[in-house]
Amino acid sequence: MPELPAAPRINPSILAADFANMQADLARIATADYVHVDVMDNHFVPNLTFGPQMVERVQATSPIPLDVHLMIADPDRWAPGYAELGAASVTFHLEAATEPVALARRLRAIGARAGVAVKPATPVEGLYDILDDFDQILVMTVEPGFGGQSFMPETMPKLRRLADEARRRGSAVWLQVDGGIAASTIEQAAEAGADTFVAGSAVFGAADPEAAIAGLRATAAQHRH
Ligand code: DX5
Ligand code: ZN
């Protein structure tokens, strides 16, 4: 019997949570797949969030595994530390890394899934020959730095090309989108080939985050690539 495709993954971003009530907000998203943790350094992006100490506490408190998104300069130096503290997945930006393949191998050696992210204007063709070195590719659907921005549909052709290429090569890499994902936009991202969806405002801004997660997952499943 052919294997059924995995259900689309929904990863709520705690950038939209209440930083003073993190434990309670983490409990509200226990039905999600991963908790998406946005680390920003006020250098790679013009905003500052938190670093390893905070991520370690989120790790200790979260009912679900961590999907860490590093929007920081010099990930070659800092990313392995997030894998060491137990994050299930660590994604760094291609634009910031000096040796992305070597860094991905180090992350995997520590036991994390290795992810690479591209900003909206960064081409994906350079990733085609190194797909096997990554467990996840994050196609940003907003300029990284802030939650609550509008989804950029112009990133979809690039995502579709990447998804087609990954399929052609028989790659198991997960394709993630992040930024402006909501009930009104998740359909086009799923159709273009995403299987993993980050949503901040659409989950934590909802009266019932669990219902929002279930709704996003169902819509994505109906519109698979
Ligand atoms: C933006 C972050 C996103 C952000 C998404 O730089 O990487 O993860 O939290 O927030 P929404 O879903 O509100 O666009
Ligand atoms: Zn993010």
Automatic annotation (TrEMBL):
NCBIfam families: PRK05581.1-4 (NF004076), rpe (TIGR01163)
Domain of life: Bacteria
Catalysed reactions, semicolon-separated: D-ribulose 5-phosphate = D-xylulose 5-phosphate
Enzyme class: isomerase
Classification lineage: Bacteria, Bacillati, Actinomycetota, Actinomycetes, Micrococcales
Protein name: Ribulose-phosphate 3-epimerase
GO MF annotations in UniProt: D-ribulose-phosphate 3-epimerase activity
Key word Transport present: no
InterPro entries from the UniProt entry: Aldolase_TIM, Ribul_P_3_epim, Ribul_P_3_epim-like, RibuloseP-bd_barrel
Entry-linked HAMAP family: RPE (MF_02227)
Record: residues binding substrate: 13, 69, 145-148, 178-180, 200-201
Task of the protein: Catalyzes the reversible epimerization of D-ribulose 5-phosphate to D-xylulose 5-phosphate.
Active site as annotated: 38 (proton acceptor), 178 (proton donor)
Annotated keywords: Carbohydrate metabolism, Isomerase, Metal-binding
Pfam families (UniProt xref): Ribul_P_3_epim (PF00834)
Cofactor needs: Mn(2+); a divalent metal cation; Zn(2+); Fe(2+)
Residues that, per the record, bind a divalent metal cation: 36, 38, 69, 178
Note accompanying the cofactor annotation: Binds 1 divalent metal cation per subunit.
Keyword rRNA processing in record: no
EC number: 5.1.3.1
Protein family per UniProt: Belongs to the ribulose-phosphate 3-epimerase family.
Pathway: Carbohydrate degradation
